[in-house]
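Sample A.
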Amino acid sequence: MPVSGFFPNVGVSVLVSAVVTAVFAAFVLLGIRRLRSIRTAAIASALVYGLAEMPGRPASRQTRAQVEKLLEDTKLDQQMKLFGQWDDWKNGRRGVF
């Protein structure tokens, strides 16, 4: 939804100015370390929102055989065997169905 839908009587430049002012105030109050963690969360949120709003899937879904090949190619099957999870994977009690 465009910004004008949320704030019909306010220009975009006024909103940008308000955001810049808020970011500067947050920088002064919180400090750089805290702002980096907030920035990281904001980037992750924007990414998840963007993926959720896409009209199609970003990639096709993998079959069980493709996932098993990936596990074997990356040697994750050995780790699963070490932790006792490989038998559950092979019997269909764990993973993609």
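Sample B.
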Amino acid sequence: MQLLFSCILRVGCIKTMGRKEKLIKRFTAIPADFTWSELCSLLGGLGYEMLAGSESRRKFKKGERIIVLHEPHPGSIVKKYVLRQVLAALKETGEIE
């Protein structure tokens, strides 16, 4: 009991979920309302740089790894199949469990 109490009192012992972790958790649930902005934030947080392609095509590059997507339009909601493809790619590289 004393060990638990001292752990609670120490700063940093109890972890809170940060913005990046919350976004990853939301993304892995493959929600129907995941936005392009959220996807850009997620990939940016994982170290990917967005490069403009032709028309609505966007490339996300990290080292030699490239993920090619089409930015949704006229809306901003990303299709579920696209989220599944991105999730599979990130799991393949071990960036998301």
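B remarks: Residues 80-92 form the longest helix (13 residues). The CA atoms of residues 52 and 58 lie 5 Å apart.
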